[in-house]
Amino acid sequence: MAAGEGEERGNRTIVLGLMADSGLPERVARRLGDTLPGELSENVDAAVRWEVSVVQETLPLDSDGDIPLERYAEDLKQRHHWDLLVYVTDLPRYVGNEPLVSDVNVSQQVCLISLPALGWPRVRHRTLQAVLHAVAHMTEGSSAEEPADGESANRLAPVHGVFSSARDDGKYSYLSGLRGRLRLMLGMIRSNQPGRLLPSLSSATAAAIGTGAFGIFYASIWNMADSSSPLRLAGISFLAIVSMTAWLIGYNGLWDRRRLHGLAGQAGMDNVATAVTVVLSVAAMYLILFAVLFLGSLAVISGDYLQSQLKHPVSPIDYARLAWLASSLGTFAGALGSSFDSDESIREATYSRRQQERRKLADRTSDGRE
Asked: Which UniProt keywords apply (predicted)?
């Protein structure tokens, strides 16, 4: 169906298909679904009656680890009776070494938007702006730059930090420089959803709680915590979190030493995002461990007995210092305990679904070359 079919005298209808990968892309797309018709009417073309259809559907990756949307575009549009198609994915994409935000094909009336390039904060707003710009360009029906006197060009302000470049059949938008890579990294971390890793670390958590609980029963640990300065305790905590992070990354093969599919910057960005994702997950486990041990020490150790051991009046701060040191010791043990957790489940919980697909594809490609 071409854009403009369903046209009635004095009233043109355009159906926009908003297709999204499962997870965060789908949630963002569905949040946009109700308000998008009004936004399109206000910012793109008020003479058009806009209809928006939100669908969760995932396209397979090609041999290069990318999404060949143009290969499936016509079939998808005909099957769903769409005039325009915008596909939102959580797969990081690049043009050269620059993070790709959107890729518009005017001749096929389709656009692919990469959610990680939109960063972490204000994702819904940035996705909305990317969709509006893509639709405006598709409905103008030209691969050239948007005309200065065009209604949609006047209404839609440029998106800060996003650059555009024309190509034969459309245009693409991308991020540039250090700030652009930082935005992409934050978006990749958000797509990875660090909290998902915690349920996969059940053995590590059990080992950490067991070791930490064992520590709060020993008077030597009490005196050690009492004599340690906050700076020293913080240093021990930092060392424990970094050690467990390094163990998880190394033991489970989360670090990528290759340049995936010839993209020079992709492996580096992927590794940094992975490291931050694991650090945040371990830090969250550490805070949970601290809360459990703090409450446990309050319940088990009476104030009078703790005071007799420390030789000075005690307060909740003393219990907190004890739980602080015990949590660090427990985290060291948790790193070893993580060896009993499933490495496959840890990898799946560390990456977004599409990034995990890309890494598996790279592993198969690498094995095929060896």
From this structure: Membrane, Transmembrane, Transmembrane helix
